[in-house]
Design goal:
- By secondary structure, the chain is mainly alpha-helical.
- It is 79% helix and 2% strand.
- It is built from 7 helices and 2 strands.
- Strand 1 and strand 2 form a beta hairpin.
- Helix 2 crosses helix 6 and helix 4 runs antiparallel to helix 5.
- The termini are far apart.
- The relative contact order is 0.12.
């Protein structure tokens, strides 16, 4: 005897919920916050570092084209184009390197988030969807830190061991 259609739909819906629940549990076990933090660090670092590399010759020699870009297209208020180009280029090299290492992750992500806000407001206001995706990754890092696979965590573990050893010596 065939089941009524509403019963078949209820069984199918229950089966789909069970499958989604299993998938969710699998993802929670396999995709850790540490992996997400590492991926966020690498993604943001690559975006900004590659942008910084387009502004220089050699390691950090600013190109005339980069200064011209800040004078004509970017036009950041309150800063002379040369200063803006130098500061942005330095930031686009320093903070991604810190993110790559996971050193000062929260501060580096906050600095790049501030830079993204300036870009959004003064340079490319129509690129909000791109900037929102960057901001999301940076907020993840500001809120959660660099994760287990970062120098921040390695240094924190070393500090806690030293503090623990010092406490046991004085007790």
């Amino acid at each position: 005897m065939k089941q009524p259609i509403h019963t078949q739909r209820a069984v199918a819906a229950r089966s789909a919920r069970t499958a989604l629940s299993r998938l969710h549990a699998l993802c929670e076990r396999r995709i850790s916050a540490d992996l997400l933090a590492l991926c966020a660090r690498l993604a943001i670092a690559s975006i900004f570092f590659l942008s910084g590399r387009t502004k220089v010759d050699g390691w950090l020699t600013l190109t005339p084209a980069a200064v011209d870009l800040f004078a004509t297209e970017y036009r950041v208020p309150l800063l002379e184009p040369l200063w803006a180009a130098q500061l942005a280029t330095l930031a686009e090299h320093l903070f991604p390197l810190l993110l790559l290492l996971g050193l000062g992750t929260r501060a580096a992500a906050a600095a790049l988030l501030a830079m993204t806000a300036v870009i959004q407001v003064f340079v490319y206001p129509d690129a909000w969807s791109t900037h929102l995706s960057w901001a999301t990754l940076m907020l993840l890092l500001i809120g959660g830190g660099g994760g287990r696979w970062s120098l921040d965590q390695l240094l924190a573990r070393g500090r806690s061991r030293r503090l623990g050893a010092g406490a046991s010596l004085t007790a």
